[in-house]
Amino acid sequence: MERRLLLDAGSGGRASQRLISSLMGRYFSNPILDVMDDAALLPAIDGPLAMSTDSYTVTPLFFPGGSIGSLAIHGTVNDVSMLGAEPLYLTCAMVLEEGLELDTLEKVVADMALAAEHCQVRIVTGDTKVVPKGCCDKLFINTTGVGRLRRQPAPSGHAAKPGDVVLVSGAVGDHGLTIMAARESLSLDGQIRSDSAPMNGLVAKVMEACPDVHVLRDPTRGGVATTLNEIAQQSGVAIVLDDASVPVHPEVAGGCSFLGLDPLYLANEGKCLVIVPEDQAEAALKAMRSDPYGQEAAIIGRVQEEKAGRVTLKTRIGGERILGMLEGALLPRIC
Amino acid sequence: MERRLLLDAGSGGRASQRLISSLMGRYFSNPILDVMDDAALLPAIDGPLAMSTDSYTVTPLFFPGGSIGSLAIHGTVNDVSMLGAEPLYLTCAMVLEEGLELDTLEKVVADMALAAEHCQVRIVTGDTKVVPKGCCDKLFINTTGVGRLRRQPAPSGHAAKPGDVVLVSGAVGDHGLTIMAARESLSLDGQIRSDSAPMNGLVAKVMEACPDVHVLRDPTRGGVATTLNEIAQQSGVAIVLDDASVPVHPEVAGGCSFLGLDPLYLANEGKCLVIVPEDQAEAALKAMRSDPYGQEAAIIGRVQEEKAGRVTLKTRIGGERILGMLEGALLPRIC
Predict the structure, then answer these.
(1) Which terminus of chain B, N or C, has less C-beta within 10 A?
(2) Sheet arrangement for strand B238-242
(3) Residues A95, B57: C-beta atoms closer than 8 Å
(4) Whether the predicted model's global pTM rises above the 0.90 cut
């Protein structure tokens, strides 16, 4: 018999207390969370802070390579990391649909706990709402993270400079294509898995190896193409991307070709774009490759002065074309 | 013709950029938010931090005395304040339903901006997801706040001591009854309005007036009765509440009597429970009453040693009864 979530678990009364203590309180337990006051009391953090928030609505809840639970940890850890910061504390707020299988919820919570431990971040406070059946689709998670800035100026989308080199930490498009295939029950050739992974370790290594990290960005929704367009606009520079240098797993390239998709527009959840001065590019590449999540890191492009605001793709056959931002909705609920 | 939200506004591409820059970016604009990197860069905060998160799913979106927008600011400002802290920065993550009227969204965003300005907090970063029609009910908001701790030990639900005095900052039950009446289109006597309001100013005054503030808690879901039960359990003390001293607006008392409800279990969104040593109770009361949101503050109970973990109600006719936590679901989506 499946146990299912009842509406009273969101009442704020005894049923809420029971759910939280038996599930979130148990899996996420740590000295800060366990106090269970209205707010978490965090030890002082030296210097400026990085703070980021994301809501996760991905469907299906479980997919090859991860789940909404692991994604909710990795995604926010990665966003905080993109200021070159060390993520320390996360909050977890869930909106749950009445009737949700409690086993499903427990699996998600367990995935979050495991991912948080792996990233060495603590979940310090939370919130649980239960909405009547039909008012949300199974469950949504918000995580918000704070971290310690390593140094200033922090890397920023505004800081790319002509002459800089663009690197990516590994093959692109895995997450987007995995979700699409899982959603549509497509059977594509080979094993496609989400790349959902934490970037905080890789970022720490890059920050240590390179004195001037101009930009760090994780190319999630909209993919590498859209993220590079944002950077080009923010920094007022042009970026030239070398298509042949962008790592793409053969099964993703195959799936994309079959479906008429471009991996440069597919979401990634365990990748990092790094932009550094040319003389630090090799050091950045080496640092990235020394991390378990950066083995396939590559130099993929250059920052230029001319045609500011634009991203150009040098194609494999030697041509050039403008690579715009994602137009339209490629796939809703990708993360 | 009503303009409605399209799914591509959640794609992470150009349509997302357009929505965010025309709405959230415009209303929430401040130097930290405007940078628009993956994470916000916050100035250093001296000493320990308070951090809290809440998701808001209230329906209807607009109700007498407030909206999901103002509530999303007040609720999190209040939770951060309950450590005696000064709330400084908030994040805002929205899950929006495809087809949502853009005018509705703009009203909510405008309410958030106004409330944030009133509370003197900044919205520093955000996230916007759009889910297909039917996957959520109009819109959900998550706000997560950080603030500066004023002193240690911070007030805590674990710190109530026998002999302490319990105060409330004003009349109870307004928010819960307002939502119920709005939802069910009940016409109750008189003007019932949500009490949605920020408690940060009032808390600052209490912290300044009283050297030993043992407990601060905002009695939201589950009401004063459930919150006091949590405190009694956490602190291992008994609390005796004097029913006749608890301020209740006559129209709320009337509505509750008509509907068979107890105002002590109804949600509040602009109230604060304060527990201080007996010799600081008058100072706390005076400080609370000096705040615009504490005019009806009152001493409502005592902390005792015997019967630890229990809340007892001294009734108006001189009897005593146990006041338990809220059982069952009084009303979903109250906040």
Answers:
(1) N
(2) B215-217, B273-276, B165-168, B298-304, B238-242, B311-314, B320-322
(3) yes
(4) yes
